[in-house]
Specification:
This protein has a single domain, classed as Alpha-Beta Barrel (TIM Barrel). 39% of the residues lie in helices and 12% in strands. β7, α11 and β8 form a beta-alpha-beta unit. The protein is globular and about 60 Å long. The chain binds iron/sulfur cluster (SF4). Iron/sulfur cluster binds next to loops.
Length: 339
């Protein structure tokens, strides 16, 4: 489990983003090209990238624009009609418009530090918490930054890259992009990784997301993210709509987990909500057992009612001991080895 991740850390293989920065975009410059020009270049460059990754060859430096720069250019173009997540607001964030998440063209960072509270394989994890979120969960535990896209300070990719370098000197094992949610900040994340350059050759990148990422954004993440640290919260759309104000949840999130399986390594998190073992926990485990056999599965019991959970009496409590034991038993029944 997490073989790629550890081989990067042990310097047996470069991180994906490094090979992407050594793959040609297939054009000397990306200036003046629109999205419709850039996507075909991207697909062709990704085919070359997959080929060299498959051969496990370390590519020489690319001439002209790189695939990583091409991805960043596409992310910046997508700001003009935002489809970073599957809400697909279509707003032009470059002119000051904001969509559901409230995040502008300039991302904001609420905090950025070596985090020791993640899964043992990840810590210390250099975690960047962006402000704003594509979900509005009634029980959000980071509501002060997730619900306020103006929280924190404007993000500067140069400074963020410097901060990642400092973190590496202090022993960080990865760069972990979260929030809120990383999706509205994809352009900033890609620019930061470009600025980090070869210094990050053995620093794995972690996409720590609610997995409501758009198909286009998922395509840009391939070749950059080494680990998808993804939440799978709801086993049906009704619960997702009630507590997180989101539509078509199960189809989109399950689609993205399947895509992530082909793009990197997955660490799946399921936060057990009180009273939601049958409708959510059990269904997610059943799905994961069938579709992601052997997946890293973190069954999380730390739910506590926060933010506006009191408005929903059925989740205004912690999960009972009986529910926790029931969830562990469900995992055993589905053949899921808990991490
Ligand atoms: S990131 Fe998602 S929620 Fe935010 S503006 Fe873009 S499509 Fe809308």
């Amino acid at each position: 489990m997490l073989e790629d991740y550890f081989s990067i850390l042990e310097k047996k293989a470069p991180a994906r983003h490094w090979t992407c920065s050594h793959t040609s975009a297939g054009a000397p410059s990306l200036d003046g090209l629109g999205e419709e020009d850039l996507w075909p270049l991207h697909e062709a460059a990704m085919a070359r990238w997959r080929e060299s990754r498959g051969a496990r060859a370390e590519p020489p430096p690319a001439a002209g624009a790189t695939l990583l720069e091409l991805k960043a250019a596409l992310a910046r173009r997508m700001l003009r009609s935002c489809r970073m997540c599957e809400r697909r607001c279509g707003v032009d964030r470059t002119t000051g418009e904001t969509g559901y998440c409230g995040v502008g063209a300039v991302s904001r960072v609420a905090s950025n530090f070596l985090h020791f509270g993640e899964e043992p394989e990840l810590v210390p994890s250099h975690t960047t918490f962006f402000s704003g979120c594509t979900f509005h969960c009634a029980y959000c535990q980071n509501w002060d930054i997730a619900m306020d896209a103006r929280a924190g300070s404007p993000a500067d990719p140069l400074l963020l890259a410097d901060s990642l370098r400092d973190g590496m000197k202090q022993g960080s094992r990865n760069a972990n992009f979260v929030g809120g949610n990383p999706d509205p900040n994809l352009h900033t994340i890609l620019d930061t990784i470009i600025r980090l350059g070869g210094d990050g050759k053995h620093l794995p990148m972690v996409w720590n997301s609610n997995m409501y990422t758009s198909e286009e954004a998922m395509r840009l993440l391939e070749g950059v993210m080494d680990v998808y640290l993804g939440d799978f919260r709801y086993g049906n759309d009704e619960c997702a709509s009630r507590y997180s104000d989101v539509d078509d949840y199960f189809r989109i999130v399950s689609r993205n987990f399947i895509a992530a399986r082909g793009q990197g390594e997955i660490m799946l998190r399921h936060l057990l909500l009180p009273g939601h073992l049958e409708c959510c926990g059990d269904r997610i485990m059943s799905w994961a057992a069938r579709n992601l056999p052997g997946v890293y599965f973190n069954l999380m019991f730390q739910y506590r009612p926060e933010y506006r959970a009191a408005l929903y009496p059925e989740i205004d409590r912690r999960p009972s001991q009986q529910e926790k034991m029931g969830a562990v038993e469900a995992a055993r029944r589905h053949g899921i080895a808990l991490s």
